[in-house]
Structure formats: C-alpha cells, structure tokens
TrEMBL record:
Listed SUPFAM superfamilies: Trypsin-like serine proteases
Keywords from the UniProt entry: Disulfide bond, Hydrolase, Protease, Serine protease
Span of domain Peptidase S1: 2-245
Protein name, entry field: Acrosin
PROSITE patterns attached to this UniProt entry: TRYPSIN_DOM (PS50240), TRYPSIN_HIS (PS00134), TRYPSIN_SER (PS00135)
C-alpha cells in the first residue's frame, strides 16, 4: 500500500503492474511489479516466494497491466500469466538480494496505458542526484488496513544511504545495493501489497522517469526514521540482462 498517497490518474505510471494470485480472494493482488520488457516484469524476490502462495502452483501468477482500478478494468487492460519466476541466486528472505523477474506467457502491446520502464545503465545516471521521485502501488493505505482498489501514488525523497544505515534509522541493516526513500518524519511510504512495485525518479533536465528501485521492505509503514527500503535496479542491471537472454 502507499501510505499518504493520492489516487493516480489513469495512465500515469504505465509500467506498473498488479501481480495476482488467481486462487486468492477478491482480485488476488499481492504484489506490484514493473514492466521492463514487453514480456518481462521486474519485482521483489519475496513476491514469487511468498509463504501464503501454494508452491505447487508456482509460478502461475496473473499479471494485470494497464490497470488503474483493479475491480473495474476497461479495454485498456491486458492480462497475462507468468511462465517463469527467476529469483536472484543469492536471494535470502526480504533482506538480501530482494529482486526477481517474471516471464509472461506472451508479450504485452504497448499503448498509452502500457509502457516499458527505463532501467538505468550503471553509467546512465547518478541516482543520488535525482530529485523528483515517486512510488506507486495498490497496497495498504495504513499499516493495518487492506489494499487500495485504485492505484495510489506518492512523492518521496531519496535519503542518503549512510544516514539510512545510521543508528537512528536502520542500524547497519542496509546493503550497498539498497536505496532509501521517504521522509525523516514519516507519513508517506510504501506498505504491504506495494512490494515489488516501482520507485521512479526524474532528473532535473529530463522529462522522463528512470526506474531506480524495486519496493522491498521497511519497519512498519510511514514511521519516522523508518523510510522505505528499495532494491537498486542500477546495481542489478547486468543480472537482469543475463536472465532475459
């Protein structure tokens, strides 16, 4: 969930997908993801390995692309199913190498509501210098509620990694491949059900967004000095290329 967010306009984040358990209650939404190729979705490692999913049914997830409201999908929405879930080989729990790729049964067609995100090459951009950052997801809107039916978006700030790993914040739990985003005072953050979804940032001189992070974990939702933790896409750029070959 995005805590402290607002309803996103339709088509605002056209690479954002809903990953669903076809056997789950309601829409079955349990994680977000980002389209990085017409047939591949980037998400968090803990999404396809979530304990509530019946393992024998892996990796049969439903992936809903181009949606804004999950219970009211129009002709712009495309539905695919996954054929493979590729977790990082060093993935451990939510804290280590929390990244995965899902292969779709057939490519999506790009249009106004469905587009592929730009993943920054290690030399394309200095992520720490990006200012205009956003998260989006259908997750919980407060720590103890349920998911949102309409896609939520929120503006967040990147927080310096050393500060985020300091005693006042996460006390050394972060890795070099993690990013922190949110606000020192809390209030705006990702939450349950937003995992795997995008953290995107825009450079001052650019009009387009870079997909810089995958929503990974945090302590609670929107708490002071406990910002959201994201897996850096730039760090895993070559890993992604290798998997999608």
């Amino acid at each position: 969930r995005v805590v402290g967010g607002v309803n996103a306009p339709a088509g605002a984040w056209p690479w954002t997908v809903s990953i669903q358990n076809p056997w789950g209650k309601g829409t079955g939404h349990f994680c977000g993801g980002s389209l990085i190729h017409s047939q591949w979705v980037l998400t968090a490692g803990h999404c396809p390995s979530a304990p509530h999913l019946p393992s024998r049914r892996l990796p049969w997830f439903r992936v809903v692309v181009g949606a804004n409201q999950l219970t009211l999908t129009g002709p712009e929405v495309q539905v695919r199913y996954t054929t493979r879930a590729l977790l990082h080989q060093s993935y451990f729990n939510v804290t280590d190498y929390d990244i995965a790729l899902l292969e779709l049964d057939r490519p999506v067609e790009c249009n106004q509501y469905v587009q592929v995100a730009c993943v920054p090459h290690p030399t394309d951009v200095v992520v720490s210098q990006l200012r205009d950052c956003y998260i989006a997801g259908w997750g919980h809107t407060t720590a103890r509620t349920h998911g949102s039916d309409v896609l939520q978006e929120a503006k967040v700030r990147l927080i310096d990694g050393r500060l985020c790993n300091s005693y006042e914040y996460y006390r050394g739990k972060l890795h070099s491949y993690n990013l922190c985003a949110g606000y020192a005072q809390g209030g705006i953050d990702a939450c349950q059900g937003d995992s795997g979804g995008p953290l995107v940032c825009r450079a001052a001189h650019d009009n387009f967004f870079w997909l810089v992070g995958v929503t990974s974990w945090g302590a609670g939702c929107g708490r002071a000095h406990r910002p959201g933790v994201y897996t850096s896409t730039q760090h895993f750029y070559y890993w992604m290329l290798e998997q999608m070959r």
